[in-house]
């Protein structure tokens, strides 16, 4: 409730959640958050937003966003494996490169070319479904995407590199690609040592951008949920487990 009081005072709809505390409180809930972050975090965001509205009789401009950190014991990049795909992970490293800010569509605004009837369609897993039939004039395949009425959020690509101390002798440094969205954009810069918590993703690589055929090898990345900058002399913190 103290954190909700802070959100009420600052009107910043972000709640940082230490998963080590969740683990002490309820081991089962902790495991569910780690294993099914996409589904559980969406539900928790809606629940905490409802509690805030009931407690303070006030609705914020955007839904309160829970940002968990300390997922499991902090891993090195070499410890990530296929069993971690789709789960919440925490890794440490040094930021080596960041991209310019990229606009990414969140919801698309479609309009019928014949009767101008609008339809809003949400982007799901990088894909947006174009409406097939207009419910107003019943014409098929008549929708056009109106870009200036669609909703976009900021996106940034960050390259995180392994710290030399985590690297076995004689091996080259590993790196991982991070995708950063919304208010987390521009929160880290090259040279920063940080602990990153996010959802480990595996994305298929198309043989040809114009075809749906994909390679058997997948490209891995992390959708960042939380950044925590670390001191230069200590990368792994004793409380990370």
TrEMBL record:
Alphabetically ordered keywords of this record: ATP-binding, DNA replication, DNA-binding, Helicase, Hydrolase, Nucleotide-binding, Nucleus
Gene3D superfamilies: 2.20.28.10, mini-chromosome maintenance (MCM) complex, chain A, domain 1 (3.30.1640.10), Nucleic acid-binding proteins (2.40.50.140)
Matches recorded under SMART domains: MCM
Cell compartments where the protein resides: Nucleus
Sequence ranges assigned to domain MCM OB in this UniProt record: 77-203
UniProt-listed InterPro entries: MCM, MCM_4, MCM_N, MCM_OB, NA-bd_OB-fold
Record's keyword annotation contains Nucleotide-binding: yes
GO molecular function: ATP binding; hydrolase activity; single-stranded DNA binding; single-stranded DNA helicase activity
Enzyme class label: hydrolase
PANTHER family listed in its UniProt record: DNA REPLICATION LICENSING FACTOR MCM FAMILY MEMBER (PTHR11630), DNA REPLICATION LICENSING FACTOR MCM4 (PTHR11630:SF66)
Protein known as: DNA replication licensing factor MCM4
Species whose genome carries this gene: Meloidogyne enterolobii (Root-knot nematode worm)
């Amino acid at each position: 409730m103290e954190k909700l009081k802070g959100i009420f005072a600052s009107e910043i709809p972000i709640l940082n959640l230490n998963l080590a505390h969740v683990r002490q409180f309820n081991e089962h809930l902790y495991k569910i958050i780690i294993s099914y972050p996409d589904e559980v975090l969406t539900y928790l965001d809606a629940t905490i937003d409802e509690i805030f509205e009931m407690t303070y009789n006030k609705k914020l401009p955007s839904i309160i966003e829970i940002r968990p950190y300390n997922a499991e014991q902090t891993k090195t990049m070499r410890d990530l494996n296929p069993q971690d795909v789709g789960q919440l992970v925490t890794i440490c490293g040094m930021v080596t490169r960041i991209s310019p800010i990229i606009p990414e569509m969140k919801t698309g605004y479609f309009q019928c070319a014949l009767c101008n009837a609008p339809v809003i369609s949400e982007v799901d897993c990088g894909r947006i479904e174009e409406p097939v039939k207009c419910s107003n004039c019943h014409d098929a395949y008549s929708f056009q995407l109106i870009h200036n009425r669609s909703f976009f959020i900021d996106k940034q690509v960050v390259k995180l590199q392994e710290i030399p101390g985590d690297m076995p002798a004689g091996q080259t440094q590993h790196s991982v690609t991070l995708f950063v969205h919304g208010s987390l954009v521009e929160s880290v810069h090259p040279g920063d040592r940080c602990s990153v918590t996010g959802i480990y993703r595996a994305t298929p690589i198309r043989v040809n951008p114009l075809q749906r055929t994909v390679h058997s090898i997948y490209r891995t990345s992390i959708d960042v949920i939380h950044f925590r900058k670390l001191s230069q002399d200590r990368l792994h913190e004793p409380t990370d487990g």
